[in-house]
Amino acid sequence: MKQIKFPYLKYIVTPPTKKPPQYIYRPVIPVKLFLDKKAVTFDALVDSGADECTFPAWIAKMLGHNVYKGEQKIFSGISGSVLAYLHKTHIALDGIEFASDVYYSHEWDDMPFGLLGQAGFFSHFDIHFNYMEKEILLEYHS
Question: Could you give all domains of the chain from N- to C-terminal order, each with its CATH number?
């Protein structure tokens, strides 16, 4: 079983009041998304609350997917609904590669990172979040 450890990344959070900026640490890791010989490296939040893996549509386009040809799904959340399109995409990190169902949407094009969710990412790993140490441990099982 291969183990990979990543540090949490520090993000600035601007409060809605005139208080000084604050910081939050998140389990964001670099992943490579690829299809055939095209690849894009992008950060992704390991998100236990996400059902699916989701990324900006510009990545799908760079990989050669025709975004709008994918199966449609509406994601609903606190900020409203988003229409996304499903495409089989390969994900790689630290020498591990696997195929995953990934949803892409243009409404996420300004997001600083994608989401790695239960289906398609958690299904490949035992995942240990350690907020006190600000690190995440992934144990890959093929």
Answer: 27-124 (2.40.70.10)
pLDDT, tens digit (0-9, with 9 covering 90-100), for 76-102 = 878 789 999 999 999 999 999 999 999
**Contact between 104 and 23 (Cβ < 8 Å):** no
pTM of the model: 0.91
C-alpha angle with apex 28: 26 to 33, nearest 5 degrees?
160
Q: How far is CA 98 from CA 7, 20, 30, 56, in A?
A: 22, 42, 15, 19
Q: What is the DSSP string of 37-55?
A: TEEEEEEEEE-TT-SSEEE
